[in-house]
Design a protein that fits this description.
The protein is of the alpha/beta class. Helices cover 33% and strands 21% of the residues. The chain is built from 14 helices and 23 strands. β7 and β8 (172-182) form a beta hairpin. The strands form 6 sheets. Strands 1, 2, 5, 6, 7, 8, 17 and 19 form an 8-stranded mixed sheet that branches. A 5-stranded mixed sheet has the order 18-16-9-22-23, covered by helices on one side. It binds succinic acid. Succinic acid is lined by residues 47-49, 238-240, 328-329, 365-366, 368.
Length: 520
């Protein structure tokens, strides 16, 4: 087996991983970035709406307040303040790096002023293109890139993460690293219908969990209010459409958002998603109406959405668009501090894989790309600055492998048990159904799809157990049997030996009062 030694191993090439790798390479570190797909892959590329950052210094406090309000009492206020302080400069830096943001700022749900930079409705693609160009250039400065490479397991010595074992297209590679930084995205792949890319199989969370790291608030799953769902495919209609003035009507042609929130269509996502679900239940269908915005504006402003819906014979300027909520973003993740440090020394996390405390129970729209920049950079710096003990190859953590058929079953179970509105009976029957599936196994030569299936199989019961433990409704977790909020708390889950340990810990860094009546 080939052996490689680096200062920093970065797993994932979305905005958080790319920016972390560039930060560390600029500092002269030996960096290896691996991604299981192509360099320009993962959910960053799929982001339509834009990237949020304060408009100017005066907007810092307002952006922070919007983030905290959307987060429903669970944001870490220190994290939020760091985020708003650092996001603007980093987002402006993207413009200098070649991202052709338009001059206008747009509005999305929960933002009290237009502050979202965008490149039409293909912002993620533009950011990913600029960053991957920089990554390729950084090879001259010693950055190593490995595509189509899967991280089979981490390597640990005395509770410290010291490296990982990789499956590359040509050979297995053992890596020894001063720091390992997870930037591998979320776990939207647990669900049958999602706007997230298929790569979102929770690999980073499963790696961290098997090594003993603490995962937090896995039950918070953000549903995007406006997806067009056909079979198992969910096409996103960006929230920026409502920012530009699109409105929602039910099957009776009534605008209904005034019954749910004073911010109408621009209420935070959890409210709009549940309102749409309730109106679909009551009247049969909900439509997003953009027709008044005019054909030529729509084609210019939303070319990605226009093209994607044209495949269904739908035209933004002509047709009310049938929409429904779909799983979009996973808020829970590997618990991190302000510098991306996880509960395990040597292991760092940034982006969707992490639970940084920024999003609380409900992410403010378009905060995730800027989160990737801020905390990708912070995590890379911490990984280089933290003291490292003498180099050690460590021991491989366990590997969970499952048959690919299991994925279909897991998704079906999770779609039923952990949907937009949950309840004890469904969550418990989901757990029983998962118990009936074969557990992840260890095999000598696993394939990447089998490893992904093993990761999903591992994470599914952790999410359901966390959802059962949260006996309240808050943000991205709504329970029909517990419609009110309770004292703010976090669910944390980790492996100790062969046991899975789940606890609730009080949330201590918020001024928000407990919520009442969080369900629409
Ligand atoms: C969207 O364009 O609506 C998605 C933006 C986000 O998820 O933040």
């Amino acid at each position: 087996m080939r052996k490689v030694e680096v200062d920093l191993l970065v797993i994932g090439s979305g905005v958080a991983g790319a920016f972390a790798a560039l930060t560390a390479t600029t500092r002269g570190a030996r960096v290896l970035l691996v991604t299981k797909g192509a360099l320009r892959g993962g959910s960053t590329c799929w982001a339509q709406g834009g990237i949020a950052a304060p408009v100017n210094g005066q907007d810092d406090a307002v952006h922070a307040a919007d983030t905290v309000r959307a987060g429903r009492g669970l944001c870490d206020k220190t994290t939020v303040n760091v985020f708003v302080r650092e996001a603007r400069e980093l987002v402006d830096g993207l413009r200098k790096a070649g991202v052709p943001f338009g001059q206008d700022l747009t509005l999305e749900g929960g933002h009290s002023v237009p502050r979202i930079r965008h490149v039409g409705d293909a912002t993620g693609w533009a950011i990913s293109s600029a960053l991957s160009t920089q990554l390729v250039k950084a090879r001259a400065a010693g950055l190593h890139l490995l595509e189509s490479t899967f991280v089979r397991n981490l390597r640990v010595r005395n509770g410290r993460v010291v490296g990982a074992d990789l499956l590359t297209p040509t050979e297995p590679v053992m890596v020894r690293a001063g720091g390992v930084l997870l930037a591998s995205g979320g776990y939207g792949g647990l669900f049958p219908v999602t706007t997230a890319p298929p790569e979102g199989t929770g690999d980073g969370l499963a790696l961290a969990f098997r090594a003993g790291a603490v995962l937090r608030d896995l039950e918070f799953v953000q549903f995007h209010p406006t997806a067009v769902v056909t079979g198992n495919r969910a096409r996103l209609v960006t929230e920026a459409a409502r920012g530009e003035g699109a409105f929602l009507v039910n099957a009776m042609g009534e605008r209904f958002m005034s019954r749910y929130d004073a911010l109408l269509e621009l209420a935070p996502r959890d409210v709009v998603a549940r309102a749409i679900a309730a109106e679909r239940e009551r009247t049969g269908n909900v439509f997003l109406d953009l027709r008044h915005l005019g054909e030529s504006f729509l084609a210019r402003r939303f070319p990605t959405v226009t093209a994607s819906l044209a495949e269904l014979g739908l035209h933004l300027g002509r047709d009310p668009i049938p929409v429904e909520p779909a799983v979009h973003y996973t808020i829970g993740g590997v618990q991190t501090d302000l510098h991306g440090r996880t509960s395990l020394p040597g292991l760092y996390a940034a982006g969707e894989v992490a639970s940084s405390g920024l999003h609380g129970a409900n992410r403010l729209a378009s905060n995730s790309l800027s989160e990737g920049l801020v905390f990708g950079k912070r995590a890379a710096n911490a990984a280089l600055d933290d003291p490292h003990p003498a180099p050690d190859w460590g021991e491989a953590t366990s590997v969970g492998v499952a048959d690919r058929q299991v994925v279909k079953a897991v998704r079906q179970i999770m779609g039923q048990a952990a949907g937009l509105i949950r309840g004890e009976a469904l969550l418990r029957s989901g757990l029983s159904a998962l118990d009936a599936l074969p557990p992840p196994e260890v095999t000598a030569e696993p394939s990447i799809p089998n490893l992904e299936a093993g990761n999903l199989r591992e994470l599914a019961p952790l999410l359901l157990r966390s959802a059962l433990a949260r006996q309240e409704s808050r943000g991205g977790h709504a329970r029909v049997d517990f419609p009110d909020g309770t004292a703010p708390m976090h669910t944390i889950i980790h492996r100790s030996g062969q046991e899975t340990v789940l606890n609730s810990v009080p949330h201590t860094n918020s001024t928000a009062p407990p919520l009442k009546r969080n369900l629409c």
